[in-house]
Amino acid sequence: MTGHLSIVGLGPGAAGLQTPDASAALAEATDLVGYLPYLQRVARSIGQVRHASDNRVELDRARHALELAASGRVVAVVSSGDAGVFGMASAVFEAMEAGPVGWRQLDVRVVPGISAVFAAAARLGAPLGHDFCAISLSDNRKPWALVLRRLTAAAQAGFVIALYNPRSRARPEQLGEALDTLRLTLAPQTLVAFARAVSRPEEHVEIMALADADPLLADMSTLVLIGTAETRSIPRADGTVWLYAPRTAC
Ligand code: SAH
User: Fold this and answer.
1) How far apart are CA 182 and CA 37, in angstroms?
2) Which residue's CA is the closest to the ligand 1 atom numbered 4?
3) Mean pLDDT for each 10-residue chunk of the chain (250 residues)?
4) How remote is the CA of residue 228 from the centroid of ligand 1, in Å?
């Protein structure tokens, strides 16, 4: 089989945060496959075919990309941030494993991207300087009880927690429940950041104590970062604060 398939992370939004390798993979592709708002972030290239789809049909999209590549096309599947972090890369490998053996002969490449947690952390200071984890609050593919168990375990273990997919129209209540669960383990003064649309024109960042964290501050473009007892803040000249994790934990 001669086809090529790149799975490309576009970064969090700003063009400068898309890697040169990602740009090259996108420019080389004959076909782009992805969720429409992500495809809209990719510069247009003459003759390139775009296959836009709804965000809920990841596996169909992955199969379609593999079929295109198997037919000899040079395909790029796009995801925001890093494609391997709650993104399309897993769907492609799931489809590959369940699909024709021939798909395993394709030239497949995963091109890393800057995930939302890294873009948000850079805005905030250095909150990930010690141990951290990432949890998606979406219960589309896992039971909500498991999400709550993982939140409690992560808080008890002292991880900084990056919450992806914190809130959507279909799941308006879950972030509130997640914060209440964290309040059972973490002190009320634990620092929490809501980093919305980082690196995009509508970027908005707020930092507060866990006791004051209001789920309404989050939407689907927000990354919520939960600090630990060790997370420190330093006032900045503009009235906001830097957040950072000391390099040594007690
Ligand atoms: N693969 C992506 C994550 C996809 S899940 C990545 O690596 O970043 C989608 C979630 O990512 C959103 O609900 C939000 O929590 C987070 N996210 C994506 N872009 C963001 C941005 N620019 N600012 C803040 N959070 C973002």
Assistant:
1) 32
2) 86
3) 91 97 97 93 90 83 96 97 97 98 97 98 98 96 96 98 94 95 98 98 97 97 98 95 92
4) 21
